Structure formats: structure tokens, C-alpha cells
Amino acid sequence: MIKTDMSKLTKEFSDIQAELLPKVKLENTFKKDEIKLIAGVDLAYWEEHGKTFGTCCIIVIDYHSKEIIENVYSYGEITVPYIAGFLAFRELPLIMKAVEKLTVEPDLYMFDGNGYLHYRHMGIATHASFFLHKPTIGVAKSYLRIKEVDFQMPENQAGAYTNIVIDSEIYGRALRTTKNVKPIFVSCGNWIDLDTSTEMVMSCVNKESRLPIPVRLADLETHRVRKQLAHK
User: Fold this and answer.
1) CA-based Rg of the chain, rounded to a whole angstrom?
2) From CA 230, how far away is CA 9, in angstroms rounded?
3) Distance CA 172, CA 39 (A)
4) What H or E segment, with its residue span, contains residue 4?
5) At 155, is the secondary structure helix, strand, or coil?
């Protein structure tokens, strides 16, 4: 794609993010006892015949029993180029294609990725919320460094966290979900506050992984589906 097209896309994407940002609410729009089904969302990519393909997997679990209620996926060619900071535009079509396959309605979505912890507070968890119309949480495995600000390592105990503060604003948290395991990075997506996001994530962590169950299962499923579909 020629440079003029890329800069036109960047401007278009940036304008959309700027339009959505004032509509982000980092507060709960629900009661905690209303949360019954939580969906984990992840994507994986592969190259084939000079083209990029992707799959989005969504795993829905019962928040209380942690049992899997539904498992769906979508796949297809990726037509939006990768532009740093605008990953949501690349991922959203496959996410919504997978959501259409759900026969149950999740009360909350957890994404393998960032939400408010983003250059313009518009990571995939935040951006996707406007299409899902549900509260969302971003759960990232690695740290997105913004404005040269590093995170402070939380204490080595389960549930310990440090806030990620940039320009006097809290973007997210470095959260130690399991002792002796490196932290994950939790941020609000939309329509939920950071304390509740942290609580929801911690309540979905078991001994098998530092990741909350919905995200871990979605991550595992994307690898399985990619292996099944790639070079078919």
C-alpha cells in the first residue's frame, strides 16, 4: 500500500478514535451480581500465498462455576494493514463475525490485549465495546510502553498490583495474579472501573495460568484453530 494511502488511513482511524474517546466511561454500568457469563476474546494470524489471514476465538464461561458455556471462532483474510496504535481496526471485523455466531449473550468481555492502556486510550477492549454494547476489560501479557513510562513491578504475592500512571492519569495496572510469576497488564475497556476490572480478572485466575480463564482458553483456542486452518 502506498504511503499516501497509509497516511489517509491513519488520519481516518485517528479521527474515529478521537470521536469515540469522550464516550468512554470508566465506571460500572452494572451490578456485580448481574455478571453471569464472561467471554474471552483472542486473535491469531498467519501468512499464506502472500496474504495475511486471521482467526478470532471467543470462549464464554459461567462466571461462578468457570465451566465453558460456548466456544465459537471466525476466520478470514485480513484486509486492513497493520498500523501501530490502530490494531482494533484490523481485528474488529473478525471479532464481530465471531460474536454473530454466539447463541448466548455474554455480560462482559475480556480481551487478550489492551483497553484504556493505549496511546489514545483506545485499545481493542475499549474500541470493541462500542460494537458489543457490553462492559469490557483489557488483559495484556506484555507491557505497552507509552511516553517512555515504565511500570513499577508489584510485590511478589497474588493480587498485588501497581498503577500505571502517565501524565498524572491512571492508564491501567500491572497485576501479579500468581506468586513467583510475572505480572499481566489490566486496563478498563469501557463501562467498568479499574478496581472491578482487577477483581473480575483475579476471580477468574486459577493455578493453571497467570491469565484469567476466559482469556487463557481463547488464547489456546486461537493456536489450535490456526494450526487447523493454516495451509489447509
Assistant:
1) 17
2) 28
3) 20
4) helix 3-20
5) coil
- Do 14 and 84 touch, CB atoms closer than 8 A? no
Please give the Cα distance from 30 to 38 (Å, whole number): 14
State if pTM tops 0.90.
yes
| 177-186 confidence digits (pLDDT tens) | 999 999 999 9
135: Cβ contacts below 8 Å, ≥ 6 apart: 28, 29, 30, 107, 108, 109, 129, 189, 190, 191, 192
Q: Is 8 helix (H, G, I), strand (E, B) or coil?
A: helix
Count other C-beta atoms under 10 Å from residue 141's C-beta. 14
Q: Read off the pLDDT of residues 180-217 as tens digits, 9 standing for 90 and up.
A: 999 999 999 999 999 999 999 999 999 999 999 999 99
Where residue 189 falls (left for φ over 0; alpha for ψ -120 to 50; beta otherwise) is alpha
Task: Give the residue from 154, 117, 30 showing the smallest Cα distance to 125.
Answer: 117
Q: Is 3 exposed, middle or buried (0-12, 13-18, 19+ CB in 10 A)?
A: exposed
Question: Starting from the edge strand earliest in sequence, which strands make up the sheet with 51-62, in order?
Answer: 68-77, 51-62, 37-48, 108-112, 136-140, 184-190, 169-176, 160-166
Q: Nearest Cα to 42, choosing from 215, 228, 205, 200?
A: 215
What does 51-99 look like in DSSP terms, one character per residue? EEEEEEEEEEEETTT--EEEEEEEEEE--SPP-TT-HHHHHHHHHHHHH
Q: What does the chain come to in residues? A: 232
